[in-house]
Every structure is written in C-alpha cells, then in structure tokens.
Amino acid sequence: MTVSSNTHLLPGPKDLWFLPLGGCGEIGMNLNLYGHDGRWLMVDCGVTFYNPLQPTTSPITAEVQAADPTFIAQRRELLAGIIITHAHEDHIGALPFLWPRFDCPVYCTPFTAEILRRKIARSGLSQTMPIIEIVPGGTCNIGPFLINWLNITHSIPEPQALLISTGAGKVFHTADWKIDHGPMTGKPFKPQVFKRLAQQNITAMVCDSTNALKPGFSESETVCYQALYEVIRHETQRVVVSGFSSNIGRLISLGRVAKRTGRYLALFGRAMENMVGAARACGYWPEDIPLIEPSHIGYLPANEVLVVATGSQGEPRAALSRLAQQRHPHLILEENDLVLFSSILIPGNEMLVIRLIAQLTLLKVRTMQSADSPLPIHVSGHPNQGELDLMYRYVQPAIAVPVHGEAAHIKANAAVARAAGVSQQLTGQNGDLFVLAPQPRIWPQAVATGRIAVEH
C-alpha cells in the first residue's frame, strides 16, 4: 500500500482500514470509510449545523454543512455501498445531496428508510437512489464486507451497531448508543448480544465518545418520563417543552404525560411532525396517544395545553423562537406559562439560548433548563464512562478507536478502554488513516478533508 499520495490509496486483501472523513475530532457530520481488498464501505453520511456565534476554522459559512466527500467520490467505482446506522441528521442528513457523487446502493433499516424517502421526496434529489432495507438485527453482504446489524439502544427507533467482518479482521462499529434498560421505543439493551462478540476476536471497536468525559451511567428514558410527569403535573398554566425533534421516545413520554395530566398534546415544528409521521408509518407511535392540530391549541384553557416545540438551541427560525417573539400563528404565551428545555445545551449555542430566555423573561414566562432542574427532565442518548467500560469488557477488542467526539472526548474514551484492558488505542482525527490490520498504526492526514455547504 502507499499513503504518500491519495492516488494510490488502495487497500489490499490483507488490509483492514478505517478512514473518517467527518465526525472524528468533532461531534456531528459523520462520514466513515472502511477499506478492504480493493473496495470501500461508507458508514453514515451526516450534516452539521453552522452557528455564526460559534468560532470555527472553516471558511464555509453555510447554515448546513457536510464532510467533503472528494476522496471517495473520486473512487466511486470502488465504493461497494453505504450503510446508514440510524436516522439522526448527523448520520443521514447529507445523503440525499451527496448521493449522486457516489451512485451506489444504500442499506438501512425500515424506519431509517422511511425518513430517507421523506427527505428525498421533499428535496426532489436522488430520486433514483436504490434503498435496500435490512431488518433490525439482520445480516447482509456488501462487496467483501459481511455485515451483522446489531440492535442497540439510542434516542431514535431502530438504532444499529455493526459487526463488519472481512478476510483481514473484524470491526465492531458502535455508531450512537447507550445502555438503556427502559427505553420508550424498541427493546431494552441486551448485554448478551455484545458479550458474544468477545468470542469472535474483534480486531477493533470504533466507538462513540460523546459523553466520555462524564462519569457513571446515563439515565434511562423511563426515568426522564417520570421526571417530566412530576414537573408538569403540578402546573396550572400552559407548558411548552422544547427538545430534539428526532427523539421519538421523548415525544412518546410527553404524550403519556399529557394523558395522565389531562392535557392535549400539539407539535410545533415541521421536523417534529415529520418524525412522528414516520414513527406512525412504521408502527412506533402508540395508537392511544392522540395529537391535536396545532391550530386548535390556542383555544384551550391554559391548564389543558402541552406543546412540544422545536428550537431548544435558540435557532432563530424554530417554533420556540417564534413563540418567544409572540409571532407564532397558533399560540400566544402569557405570564407564568412554563417553558421546559428537555435537551442539553450544545456548546457554541450559549448566546442564542441566552437571547431566547431573555425574550421569554420579558413576557414573564418561566423557564427551566435541564442543567438547572433537580429532576432529570433530559437524558442523553450516549454512553457515559461506566457504559463505555462495560462495553469494552463485553467485546474485548484488540484495538480501541474512539470517534464521535472532540479531542478531549476521544482522549477520555481511550483512557476508559485502557483501564478496561484493551491493549491498544488508536486516536486521531478526520483524514487520518487507521490501519487496523495487518500491523496497527495511524498514517496522519493521509487524506485531505474539509467541509462543504449543502442546501437543506
């Protein structure tokens, strides 16, 4: 193999390579490549959202950005296929826009396929994309790669980890995950699925680092449901909850809270309505949780109103910002109404959220952020150190490759792996070539990487 020039970067039959173009050294914009025996496999193709108040070294200032796919687009005849592990924007959002550069089959589960088809229908792009649905927990061959799809728990239906088997070794690719024994959608986390991997001589575990700086274990979605109920049941005014539109489990929790507290649930925000539509189409939305038309909510008594609104990060065009500016067409907030932020504050969005809360305060609307709440009104979909430690001990890989995090997260993940008995940790960033077999090492900046703007 040669890595001195991109032109000759071609894996042989004894090579097993990992090459991140996005999502390694940052959170979001995931685009991963695996190389073996002259072919490449892409795992995920996501976006990130530019925030003009957040310092960035990128010269691209578009609102929505993706990893620059030039390296693999120039080799698309070698790209065996694309896997999308789940339907979050940072894993799927760029695919409708970038797919024409790849022109290969896309593999995903039925719920992810439903989200993808809706994106394609809205954008009019990539109408000819071949989407191959794989049942959760299924198996498929993609070129020289044998893929076992493994059910795992996360904050969206049908999240999948991957066991990627080749003639040169095996990779366990976690994608986004946590250990949740009480999820609101899907089945509880099953340790035995991952303990069995220890008998398969896993070459490397490529692992989510989002919460690697946090000790202990993340809380279950069921715990969050109980906390939201405890807060909302005492309220006599309107309650607006803002969170991430893709968290179907959280929306189901709030639907159950609405039923228990005698409130009507309405969704404000196109992304949220679209997610619930997909959940209904795939059988994930419980039939006993009704939603009312957003245009009806303004006519109800205050103590019967529960709204879930997009915009927890202070996005100027989202539903919550429009409510704070008294320009939402369906609801006027009044004094002593309550806005709950059932989400984390993503670093870089502080000024936007401060501005939003100031606008709500001027209206004499009360606010509660998850960081300031005595109850867990938000829980993460990613593993803390305790969960990382368990997974490394279950799987027992020869090599740990932390991804999906900034440098501090990746370093912390590597430290957990080391303490859990993983003998080798390879830490790097986008553009580094991780040689997993035959002789593990990193070729720094083997490939040029960057960002491109995408229409959204």
List the helices and strands and how they pair.
Layout: E1 16-22, E2 31-36, E3 39-43, E4 47-49, E5 64-67, H1 70-73, E6 79-83, H2 89-92, H3 95-98, E7 106-108, H4 110-123, E8 131-133, E9 139-142, E10 145-151, E11 160-166, E12 169-173, H5 191-195, E13 204-208, H6 221-232, E14 239-242, H7 248-261, E15 264-268, H8 270-281, E16 305-309, H9 319-324, E17 338-341, H10 350-362, E18 366-369, H11 385-395, E19 399-403, H12 407-419, E20 424-425, E21 433-437, E22 441-443, E23 451-453
Parallel strand pairs: 3-6, 6-7, 7-8, 12-13, 13-19, 14-16, 14-17, 15-16, 17-18, 19-20
Antiparallel strand pairs: 1-2, 1-21, 2-3, 4-5, 5-23, 9-10, 10-11, 11-12, 21-22
Please name the defining characteristics of this protein.
single chain; 456 residues; alpha/beta; Metallo-beta-lactamase, Chain A; Rossmann fold; 2 domains; eight-stranded mixed beta sheet; seven-stranded mixed beta sheet; 12 helices
Short synopsis of the structure:
This protein is α/β, with parallel strands linked by helices. 25% of the residues lie in helices and 23% in strands. It has 2 domains: 6-216 and 381-453, Metallo-beta-lactamase, Chain A, CATH 3.60.15.10; 221-372, Rossmann fold (3-Layer(aba) Sandwich), CATH 3.40.50.10710.
Structure in words:
With 456 residues, the chain is of the alpha/beta class. The protein folds into two domains: 6-216 and 381-453, Metallo-beta-lactamase, Chain A, CATH 3.60.15; 221-372, Rossmann fold, CATH 3.40.50.10710. The chain has twelve helices and 23 strands. The strands form four sheets. It has an eight-stranded mixed beta sheet with strand order 8-7-6-3-2-1-21-22. Strands 9-10-11-12-13-19-20 form a seven-stranded mixed beta sheet. It has a five-stranded parallel beta sheet with strand order 15-16-14-17-18, with helices on both faces. α6 (221-232) packs parallel to α7. The radius of gyration is 22 Å and the shape is globular. The protein starts with 15 loop residues before the first strand and ends with a strand.
